[in-house]
Design brief:
Strands 18-17-20-15-14-13-2-1-16-19 form a 10-stranded antiparallel sheet. Helix 7 links the parallel strand 9 and strand 10. 43% of the residues are buried. The chain is an alpha/beta fold. It contains 10 helices and 20 strands. It is globular, with a radius of gyration of 24 Å.
Length: 499
């Protein structure tokens, strides 16, 4: 192939003469022998237990099949904090004569999830602290109907037990229920579960910076106390800390938590985690969202770089999970209001959101992040509908699901990211070389218009793509018979090059 043996030339030109005059062709050069990073990044999934995953729900089986078919490691499983009765097995404090321990509603959903994820490492996150353990002006009620959401259950910013032993003991009992066959309650009574699940990771709380506004010092003490107790009953489990909602706003949290001097001796710092959502303002029009979402993604990735600098300086052996990645419509923030009405999103929104995930995944792979988790399976109106990966009426996966499957089927830890240069064009292009030498090119169209690509080295290869033409269907797959390729609007494509 002459000069093309070490790099791939891709010319991009818009389909109309008018746009071509305004947008000159771009060029991608892939230097296949110049490795810049060996990927550690696993594409993964946030799986939340909700009424949609209950046994009586018609979506239960489609959801479980979709999760199983993804075949992903390090899925983050958590009951939903909007439904206390589906989330918390001890909703009331113990008395002198009784306790309120009850796993009747929680168990079927956990069992289903772990069967769907069998054979894969799973991250457990039983994040919601029972409110009776928190100092509040008055007791916090919860609905008697387990399927009725409550958005203000989590209140207060201080645990009632200043030693944090009470909350640690609670999580030890939950862990023993699922990993060790049962537990002894506060009154000395044995509760037998029969469960002996392997718990690969335990994440300590979820977004504690917003759910209870814990300070870095308070969260670190809570983490240490819980992990110290859990290690005694889960000796082979790794622990994930922080689960930060807004990493760009809390540099002090990373500086404090990642400094081993701020922890008890022997407490492991196996992993940290944090989250990213691109969110437009209410008055920003939909046609501006591609520009807004990708700009916010770039800002998040800059913040990730700063966090990585802190981590490498203070605790280089600690891994990183970005275990919620998504886009969100501003309307979702009004879902708790009594006058909330879901406004259907345009079909192209799901393609845009899918492209943003693929973009963040690719960039995190180049930064050595361990896990990139798309959020979330089974969202619906009233529970952050705009991060759904399935139609909440039919169970049909949408473009967000299919792009995650495309990433999981094609890219894995151990892949070599090679030098890929782009001059112009609103795309991301990244070359990957698999352990067996397979060469793949990930292409992401950041705009809502088609782009034509010249691919002189790709003839005889194949392209798989998710774009506006595929809708809610699986990725298209076609052989590349010419030296050109059409990259669809908001498309995510994987080109497998001929050997």
């Amino acid at each position: 192939m002459g000069a093309l043996s070490s790099w791939l030339l891709v010319s991009l030109a818009c389909c109309s003469p008018h746009l071509a005059a305004e947008e000159p062709p771009a060029t991608v050069e892939v230097h296949w022998n110049n490795v810049v990073q060996v990927s550690r990044t696993k594409p993964s999934l946030l799986f939340i237990g909700t009424p949609k995953t209950e046994a009586k729900s018609p979506l239960r089986l489609p959801i479980l099949k979709a999760v199983k078919d993804l075949n992903l490691d390090d899925v983050r499983y958590s009951p939903c904090n909007l439904y206390p009765r589906l989330d918390i097995p001890e909703l009331d404090p113990p008395t002198a004569t009784s306790t309120s321990w009850d796993f009747l509603l929680l168990d079927p959903e956990v069992d289903d999830a772990l069967r769907a994820l069998a054979g894969h490492p799973v991250i457990f996150n039983f994040s919601t602290i029972p409110e009776w353990m928190i100092k509040t002006a008055k007791p916090v009620p919860y609905p008697s109907d387990p399927d009725q959401p409550i958005s203000n259950y989590e209140q207060g910013d201080e645990l009632r037990d200043p030693t944090y032993r009470e909350v640690a003991d609670y999580y030890v009992r939950v862990a023993n229920w699922y990993a060790n066959g049962g537990f002894t309650d506060e009154l000395g009574k044995w509760h037998q579960s029969g469960h002996h699940y392997k718990i690969d990771y335990w994440e300590v709380l979820n977004e504690p910076d917003v759910e209870h506004h814990f300070s870095p010092q308070a969260y670190t003490r809570i983490y240490d106390t819980i992990v110290e107790a859990l290690r005694k009953v889960l000796p082979n489990t790794k622990f994930v800390g922080l689960s930060n909602s807004y990493p760009g706003g809390h540099p002090d949290l990373f500086e404090y938590f990642l400094d081993p001097r701020n922890h008890k001796p022997g407490i492991p710092l196996d992993m940290i985690s944090y989250h990213f959502y691109a969110v437009p303002d209410l008055d920003e029009p939909a046609d501006a969202h591609p520009f807004i979402f990708f700009a916010q993604a770039d800002r998040f990735l800059e913040v990730t770089g700063y966090i990585e600098t802190i981590r490498k300086r203070l605790s280089p052996a600690t891994g990183t999970m970005v275990d919620e990645i998504g886009t969100m419509h501003a309307d979702d923030w009004g879902q708790a209001k009594t006058d909330y009405i879901y406004k259907p999103l345009p079909a192209s929104y799901w393609n845009l959101s899918a492209a943003v995930y693929a973009y963040v995944f690719a960039r995190l792979s180049s930064m050595g992040i361990d896990v990139a988790t798309e959020s979330m399976i089974a969202a619906y109106p009233g529970n952050f509908a705009s991060i759904a990966m399935m139609d909440w009426n039919t169970g049909q996966p949408n473009a967000r699901y299919w792009v995650l499957k495309l990433m999981g089927d094609n890219f894995h830890p151990g892949d070599k990211l090679v030098e890929t240069q782009l001059s112009g064009g609103p795309i991301l292009a990244q070359g990957f070389v698999g352990p067996d030498g397979t060469r793949k090119l990930l292409l992401i169209n950041k705009r809502d218009r088609d782009l034509a690509l010249n691919l002189p080295e790709a003839r005889g290869g194949k392209v798989e793509a998710v774009d506006k033409t595929t809708g809610s269907n699986p990725p298209s797959s076609a052989p590349i018979k010419a030296d050109q390729l059409q990259l669809g609007a908001l498309g995510v494509a994987v080109v497998t090059l001929p050997r």
